[in-house]
Design brief:
Number of strands: 5
Order of helices and strands: HHEEHEEEHH
Strand order of the largest sheet: 2-1-5-4-3
Mean pLDDT: 79
Low-confidence stretches: 7-25
Shape: elongated
Distance between the termini: 80 Å
């Protein structure tokens, strides 16, 4: 029997996992990615609120009050559904601007089939926060760039010189 090899049946192939197994295994990753995106968007200048919603208009996550989030998600899902139906290519973004706000809408590729999700970002496009740069900061930046500081230059002149140099260098 030492010369005879034992014949082994080939192992049966494992059944293929269901189609949604990949999504389920990545659900933790998707949740983390959604949280990071949500926090990053909230940090953008002028953003007033964010709503992530399903294609049926139900809210998944929001930074707005619950009533406002439901109203925004319902309207945004209807607007996106109509926009997706009007174009022949995948819709990447839809921007709706009113006199007060701007609403940026985006959706997944499966949104039109009723399985996707969307995101609505409300922002105030007119919100301006100016940071006044002092003369000392301008002088320090100019010295760092190796620029000559003209004697008796005021803040406006220094700003102009610095802007010109930065444009020249493509900064």
């Amino acid at each position: 029997m030492a010369d005879e090899e034992e014949y082994l049946e080939p192992a049966a192939a494992a059944p293929a996992p269901p189609a949604y197994a990949d999504v389920v295994s990545r659900s933790g990753e998707s949740e983390r990615l959604m949280e990071l995106t949500f926090e990053r968007l909230l940090g953008v200048h002028g953003v007033l609120g964010i709503v992530i919603f399903r294609s049926d208009g139900s809210v998944l996550k929001s930074s707005l009050e619950p009533k406002e989030a439901v109203v925004l998600a319902t309207g945004a899902s209807q607007a996106l559904a109509r926009a997706v139906g009007c174009v022949d290519e995948p819709l990447s973004q839809l921007v709706i601007r009113t006199t007060k706000h701007e609403m940026l809408l985006s959706c997944s590729e499966r949104f039109g089939s009723g399985e996707g999700y969307g995101i609505a970002v409300m922002q105030d496009p007119n919100l301006v926060v100016e940071k006044k740069v002092g003369v000392k900061e301008l002088v320090a930046k100019m010295r760092k760039l190796g620029l000559e500081i003209p004697p008796g230059a005021d803040r406006a002149w220094l700003l102009e010189l610095l802007e010109n140099e930065m444009m020249r260098r493509g900064m």
